[in-house]
Amino acid sequence: MNLKRIAVISYHTCPLYDEKDAEVGGMNIYVLELCKALSQKGATLDIYTRCVDKNSPAVVNVNPNLRVIHLRAGQPAKIPKEKLTQYIPQFISNLYEFIGNEKLSYDLISAHYYLSGLIALKMKNKLHIPMFMTFHTLALMKNLAERKADYQRIEFEFLLVKNSDKIIANSEADLEYIHTLYDCPLKKISILTPGVDLKIFKPADKRPAKKSIKANLNHKLILFVGRIVPLKSIDVLLYAIKILVKKNPRLTICLWIIGKRSKEAKRLDLLRKILKIETFVEFAGQISHQKLPNYYNAAEVLVLPSQYESFGITALEAMACGVPVITTDVTGVSRLLDKKHSPLLTSASNPIMLAKKINHLLINNAEHKRMSNEVAKKVRDLSWENIADGFIRIIS
Questions:
Q1: Is residue 22 over pLDDT 50?
Q2: Residue 62 has pLDDT above 50, yes or no
Q3: Which of 299, 303, 308 is nearest to 144 (CA)?
Q4: What's the half-sphere exposure (Cβ side, CA atoms, 13 Å) at 249?
Q5: pLDDT-based confidence at residue 21 (cuts at 50, 70, 90)
Q6: How far apart are CA 260 and CA 225, in angstroms?
Q7: 3-state class of 303 per DSSP?
Q8: Which of 18, 145, 168, 391 has the fewest beta carbons under 10 Å from its own?
Q9: Backbone phi, then psi, for 222, in 5-degree steps?
Q10: Dihedral Cα 208, 211, 215, 219, nearest 10 deg
Q11: For 289, which DSSP code?
Q12: What is the helix, strand, coil percentage profile of the chain, to 5?
């Protein structure tokens, strides 16, 4: 397919917002980096997103083939995602006005997250162009992990699965859930894993990296990077740290939790005090994406203890830096690992097993080195350029 222009919908979050106030990792990085890679291959893309800052320019030209368009939908301020559906009609109206004023036409729509899908579905029916849907997270799986029920979102996701021309899954696990739980024909689903910027995320000497982030040179640094929300099960990691300290008191460790402060962070801070591990655990706050390589390279291991994760971009970034990643077997990224990587896989909500996995890597230098080399090899082909090629194959 010779693409002229792609309309990308990222309604609830602006992909340019990462450096200012957005959550570390995830959808923002995926959308922006994939679009940048596609634009460098000759596609022209417009990313439509809701304006959350009245001072944001209406149009931001990322490069000659890629721009981000901020449209009004409600007040230009952060609004909880569950309240954003009421502003979709205003967003669509402003989107059509922009398209009309600029006399634009598109070859296809690429929607990210179910809220964007609802907008894309309206566009598909009006403009008569194909719609490609990427959910990033699925309500049925999120609800299972959190023991909640968002029935309206589930209903919307079933609608989008039925009416999209193609569903793009982040992983094999994602594909299985969409196929079995959402009754989606396999021929309608394609897998496109997230990528990683291999020019930025690459191995570097640990000692200078530690100095650059002011970490103790004598501590073995354990890292968590991501949103500080219950779904990530950071409390399980805190339990594991307590177990690790108790069982191996000679091990000099510290855990840095990188992510934006939240209501969940307050709960975890209290838990840290209850477990008496304040001296071993630090909330490092939010770190800009460009600075993360120093933190990864300073670490001995990254831990992703999530109850559910459609993939896990931070894991890819750490792996590209040659840092072993211990993850639960329910994450999408865990499918990159096989039997020889068993030291890196744990089960969800299992702090005893997690503590054993961390301890094994920290005390076994040969094993740590082997895993460092293995994970770096695993992501060698996952550059955003290659992921963009995969996207082009899917839509062709």
A1: no
A2: yes
A3: 308
A4: 1
A5: very low
A6: 10
A7: strand
A8: 145
A9: -105, 135
A10: 50
A11: G
A12: 50, 15, 35
What pLDDT score was predicted for residue 315? 95
- Class level of CATH domain 6-197+382-395: alpha beta
Q: Write the burial class of residue 42 (CB in 10 Å: 0-12 exposed, 13-18 middle, 19+ buried).
A: exposed
pLDDT greater than 80 at residue 160: yes
Alpha carbon separation from 123 to 7, 18, 319 (Å, rounded) = 10, 27, 38
| Dihedral sign of CA atoms 282, 288, 294, 295 in order | positive
SS3 state of residue 234: helix
pLDDT of residue 25: 52
Q: Tokens in use for 8?
A: 């990308």
Which candidate, 365, 356, 290, places its Cα nearest to that of 326? 356
Domain boundaries, the chain: 6-197+382-395, 206-378
pLDDT digits (tens, 9 = 90+) for 335-387: 988 878 999 999 999 999 999 999 999 999 999 999 999 999 999 999 999 99
Residue type, 162: K
User: What are the start-end ranges of the E strands in 98-161?
Assistant: 108-112, 131-134
Residue type, 118: L
* Dist. CA 187–CA 190, nearest whole Å: 8
197 and 321 Cβ atoms separated by less than 8 Å:
no
What tokens were used for 223?
């890292």
Same fold: 6-197+382-395 with 206-378 = yes
Which phi and psi angles does 137 have, rounded to 5°?
A: -135, 150
**Residue 146, pLDDT score:** 85
Through-space distance between the first and last CA atoms of the chain, rounded to whole angstroms: 5
Average model confidence (pLDDT) for the chain?
94
Instruction: Give CA torsion, residues 223, 191, 22, 85, to 10 deg.
Output: -140
